[in-house]
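Subject: Interface between my chains keeps coming out wrong

I've been trying for a while to get a sensible model of this assembly. When I model each chain on its own everything looks fine, but I need the whole thing in one frame so I can look at the contacts. Pasting all components below, labels as-is. Any help appreciated, I'm running out of ideas.
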Amino acid sequence: MPRLQDKVAIITGGSGGIGAEATRMFTAEGASVVVADLDEDRGRELVRSVVESGGRAEFFRTDVTSSEDWDALIDFTRGTFQKLDVLINNAGISHLGMTDPTSLDGWNQLMNVNASSIFLGTNAAVPAMTEAGGGSIVNVSSVYGILGSHGHPGYNASKGAVRALTKATAVSQGSRGIRANSVHPGVMPPMRTGGTVDDRILELRAGFAKSTPLGRLGTSADVAGALLFLASDESSYITGAEIVIDGGLMAQ
Ligand SMILES: NC(=O)c1ccc[n+]([C@@H]2O[C@H](COP(=O)([O-])OP(=O)(O)OC[C@H]3O[C@@H](n4cnc5c(N)ncnc54)[C@H](O)[C@@H]3O)[C@@H](O)[C@H]2O)c1
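Reply #2:
Try treating it as a single job with all components included. I did that and got this:
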């Protein structure tokens, strides 16, 4: 039986690297997926290719920082696929494309898109999941939500907030049958929304690959595989957990 048979999932940031890979995997495993993203062109193209290969997916333009957009997204999902079982809070931005990530503006932007969005999404999804008899929320954090790093405090803090919010959700929603877990990708190919990648960043990443026990950077599929497991009933007794997907970087 497909691993996500009859599940209905929302994947935020579904037009991007990890989100698009998760959309392909989830639909191949029987889920109906709503791709929720600001990037309409890529999102609609992805949905077209999924539907062409026999999957069920829809695109819904969503700004995850807007509570009105969240309400509309949940209404759309229930109207189209009748229920909501899985929410993958994956949309996010990095400090790389910002003029000054250490300014208050930079901090606010990172906290808003990476952390407050998940607070809004969780609040919007819980009533629909409760009606469905339970659900799974998976929040995409980062190893930099656990570790500190130089020069981008807002990224660290926003991803740390995601980690703690996930545990708060697991504790407060467990009695409704709603699970919440976080995933923490390590160093991967740069995020598409991360701005220009200069030689210094490429050099840094090559260094990370060398110092990672598995000897390579991560891929979108590495992360999407963990999202699939946490979305499925295979993880039905796992809540409040964090899965680090970093090739062993943090184990050292
Ligand atoms: N790539 C990495 O190295 C890496 C490492 C650790 C964690 N992560 C996390 O993984 C997640 C996905 O990253 P990715 O590498 O696929 O990046 P990506 O830039 O390819 O995709 C992010 C997607 O989020 C969307 N998005 C941004 N702001 C939005 C908003 N306000 N509303 C709706 N959609 C919005 C973008 O349009 C984009 O499609 C992010 O949360 C990121 O922080 C990535």
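Reply #3:
Confirming on my end. DSSP finds seven helices and seven strands in the chain.
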